[in-house]
Amino acid sequence: MAEPKENEFLDDLEEAMAEEFAADEAEIDEEELELEQVRAERDQLKDRFMRALADAENARKRSEKDRREAENYGGSKLARDMLPVYDNMKRALEAATEEQRAVSGPLLEGVELTMRELLSVFKKHGIEVIAPEIGDRFDPQHHQAMFEAPVPGTKTGEIIQVAAEGFMLHDRLLRPAQVGVSSMPAG
What we know:
single chain; alpha+beta; 4 helices; 6 strands
């Protein structure tokens, strides 16, 4: 009978070890679960951080682009309003006859100087004149057809008259050149 007691002791020992193992395993499972929750929270926070960082970078780039556009094109309304001044000064200089030049030489010289200064200011601010010539090909990106007429000796789409010069503000069209275009049929 001594043997059953010995086995009983071993059974108790095994049972106690199994209970201790189960308790340790449950504790490990809880720690792993907690660790997994912490990792998930970390990943979520990391994702939110990366998105916030990307948003900040996009906002920086957008504001830089907006600043550049405001710098380059902010004065476009004023520039557009100055174009008739250019047109009128050019017409005045072209309309002056030799007789008027002789009588009003200093006045016309002042108008010419003012015109040169206006062109200098235009250039300083990125405004370029689009000055098509008669015979040039019509370009709808830079020209506005004011009329079409069949003119002998020309090809369809050739500029036959320039009514007003156009202007570019950096890479944007401020005003197209106003032109007459040949509609001469191919013959």
